[in-house]
Structures are given as structure tokens and as C-alpha cells.
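Worked example 2:
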Amino acid sequence: MPIKNVYLHSSFLNGSKNSDLFKDLGSFDLSDPTSDDFKHLDVIVDFVDKVLKDEKLPGRNKKSYPPKEVYHYHVGPYSQSTFYNSKRLSEAFENHKGATSGPVIHYSLQGSEDLILLGYSPVFHEPFPRINDKNNILRSRIKLTYPTSDLFCARKRLLGDSDADDGEL
């Protein structure tokens, strides 16, 4: 079943973390259109757009914290010499044969229709950072259920859909 809703976790949308390992949207400097932050925002927006359109994703997609429904998706850039197998999220949530990259998007699934963006690693990532590691900002963002006050609609915030509403999960 295709993803119907993509949300931004409030800590990702409004947070200030800014490192090679984790970068929140709130720390992006969008004053210079040639900055790396615009490139990073572009790959995040592209991921959201492809997920909502149920298009194939070229990157590797892996579960980060089994048995929790938390994943990381390799957003690129990809090596041109890399062979990969594109898949839609509706076909399989895990794609171990997708293309790899340093940058990844961290997300959680809520049921089969809702995806929540938890964080972004702009340069490199630890494939499985320990959930109890105090430097792992994802640990406070991973929940079994999310209050609507923690969620902001990606369709509205990133894709400019003025008809979409925040916190509808």
C-alpha cells in the first residue's frame, strides 16, 4: 500500500542540530541559493515527493532499529558505477540492493500509510547508532505513537501544498 502522508517531526523541523552526522531543517541556512543546505533540502524534498507519488527509489533502504519501524534511506549522491535495484516503498520497505551514499534520511513508519521524517545525516551516518547513546538525537524522536503536536505535514511545509494540514495522524 502506498504512503499517503509524510510528516516532519517537530524536533527535525525546528531543531538546531548542525553536524556532519545529524542536521535539522531548523539549522539550514537558505540565504545563499548556492549553499550545500539547498542541495540537502532538495534531496529531502525529492524523497518526500517520490514517496507520495509512489515512485521507485534508487537508494538503499534499511531498518535501523529492529524490531521498531525506524529506517534510514540513502538519498545520494550515488556513485555512477554503482549497480542498484530501485523499489517503491509500497513494494518493500527494505531494499538492501539499493545504491549507497553517505547522506541518509532517518524515518519512522506508523502503520502502512504514514511516514515521519526524524532526521537527516548530510555527510555520513552510523548505520545503527545505539538507541541509548546520548549523542544519538534520534533516541528522543522515536516513539510507538506520535502526538499530533509533534507532527508537521511535509506536503505543506516542503512541497507548498496550502490545502494540507499539520498533525493529522
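Helices lie at 10-14, 36-52, 154-157. The chain is about 15% helix and 20% strand.
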